[in-house]
Amino acid sequence: MQLSLSKKRQFQGGKIRRVRRTPYVATMRSEANEESVFFRRAKNQGRFMQTLFNYTTLSTRLEKSTRTLFVTLNRPDWNNAFRLEMLFELESLLAWCTSRVEINTIFFDSSSANFSTGLELDALSGLSANALDKINTKLQKIIFSLMQLPQTVVMDLGAGCETLGSEFALGADIRIASHGTKISFNHCQFGLVPAAGGMSMLSALVPPSFARSWVLTGNTIDEAALTNSGFLKCTYDPSTRSDTIRDILANIAKVAPVQRIQAKLGLFEALRAQFENGIVMDRKVSKASMVSEDWRTKKPEAKEFDFMPAKSLSYAVKLSLVKNEDGPSKLEH
């Protein structure tokens, strides 16, 4: 006997009985000038957040005073790289956060000194084009979601990040890092392009001249350039990290929540069309660049990649510039 889940029924003792719907969200209403049920429950059950989220790649905790959800990338054995498992858990967490307007801030950090290597660089040659495309597409959606959340998103990049780790940081509203941090968009050094947002989104969030230099050289970005471009709010010494974070979270908690949420929405909407158009172009460029499979050319014993010469590209894929009557040319493949 097959039962439809959509009818919310269970089969027990040979009888079909209806299951009463008891949504968890119904117990989470936030009322004006009154502490929400959500935070009272978190206060009374100290490990509430840990039991709610049974994740294997992330750890979470809730700070009641500033209404902050702390999320830690917690797979140091992967260098906190963005495997699909971690991306699925991030996607699940952000979906949960969309209706939790009583949370002011989501704060991301890492269980390792470096925030994330992004990709598992030692295992890069074993990834197929299809696997890379799945990772890029899912991360791109997550970054886009971060920009639209009602919470203010803060990320501590610690000692640095690279490849997808740097792209993930684009979803934050505020970014900080330690003095001497090493941040790079070095995808091209590994035979890839920054397809999750490191082209379209980066050039919208920092001056394009910075974005071009960072992406096309792949070099570690100077700390002064990171702050002058607006990519980082500030850097801190290890001894002042806690004070820096506390000040940022306290300042966010002081502002009017309704107006903060609306202001973030307005800032996003001003760039939405540019982001959406850029995402489409990012995916086209990414698929065209993967034809060479340059990321797979590094042998375990080799120190360098054996990249395909640019003049050989025409033998692997045919690219054409198709003139667009309504504007500049666009790239198709």
Separation, N- and C-terminal Cα atoms? 50 Å
CATH class assignment: Alpha Beta
User: What is the name of the CATH architecture?
Assistant: Alpha-Beta Complex
Cα-atom Rg, whole angstroms? 22 Å
Low-confidence stretches: 1-35, 46-51, 319-333
Could you list some keywords that capture this structure?
2-enoyl-CoA Hydratase, Chain A, domain 1; 333 residues; two-stranded antiparallel ribbon; 38% helix; globular; alpha/beta; disordered N terminus
Give structural notes:
It is built from 11 helices and 12 strands. The chain has 333 residues and is α/β, with parallel strands linked by helices. The radius of gyration is 22 Å and the shape is globular. The strands form 4 sheets. A 6-stranded mixed sheet has the order 3-4-5-6-8-10, with helices on both faces. The protein has a two-stranded antiparallel sheet with strand order 1-2. The chain has a two-stranded parallel sheet with strand order 7-9. Helix content is 38%, strand content 15%. Helix 3 packs parallel to helix 4 and helix 4 packs antiparallel against helix 10.
